[in-house]
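Lab manual, section 2.4: Encoding a predicted structure.

Procedure: take the sequence of the chain (334 residues), apply the prediction step described in section 2.3, and record the output as structure tokens. A sample record is shown.
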Amino acid sequence: MSDLCIDIHSHFFPGISESLAASYDAARGPWLQCDATSDTGHIMLGKKSFRPVYRALWDPAFRIDEMDQQGVDIQVTCATPVMFGYGWEARKAADWAEKMNELALEFAAHNPKRIKVLAQVPLQDIDLACKEASRAMKTGHIGVQIGNHLGDKDMDDHGLETFLTHCANNDIPILVHPWDMMGGERMKKWMLPWLVAMPAETQLAILSLILSGAFERIPKSLKICFGHGGGSFAFLLGRVENAWKHRDIVREDCPRPPSEYVDRFYVDSAVFDQGALKLLVDVMGEDRVLLGSDYPFPLGEQKIGELVSGSQLGAGAKRKIFEHNAQRFFNLKI
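Recorded output:
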């Protein structure tokens, strides 16, 4: 077990009022419906309930208590993806992002040594996104979280590549989170968008950077981490490698085998299975996996770190995943 437990993938949702959300988007503005004394509530999108949630999402004191119970020393938290505002006019989204980032800092202020926060940015306008990312880093954020796509634009889009380059040149770490999942009505039940489309979205984001040649153009100083264990990437890398070798259409923009790019990005450990964790570390290397729980949602790791601590990985590898990789990735001074 590590000396420290640093969870790099968790979420928060501040006490956004209905009136504030409606001032940005009356139909689907995200806000928190809860009683001040209640331990539960609902994330609302306009007048519709999106998700039941509980106090850890908005109450930092409650969160610290649960971190103590779980043995988590430091938690990196970021916006719940419905807060992104990517569908809004860019200036409106920029104003919203700055407000949400200030609320994130207020959340962390309860215990800034133990709660660290990532900023959100108005990704639909790259200049504004770069500006907000840089501003947020100066005010106390330790990186940014972005969605894995913007409508039909994947990570290899020229504008998104420009944003990644800005972050690389300014030492701004990035957590990429899947959102707005593919599939639509074909996956309307049993949480299939989260079980099928979410891993596929993450693999799509990684492969769009590899196969487009974007990783050849973006500085190697980029620190980018993909949540949920990189989705289905590790399991399907062999399929991609085989396709690159035998189909010129796969390799036309990618000069090297896909497996040679695993040193360009990181993943978290949220895979929930010992065999999957072993495969993930075998593919990515023990220096490229960071502990991530997806707390405090039901699909996250319920006992944070249990998968890694109970694995057959060596003590050195466990320490890297629990602590050292996160310290290096986020420039944490502990």
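Check your result against the sample. The longest strand covers residues 6-12.
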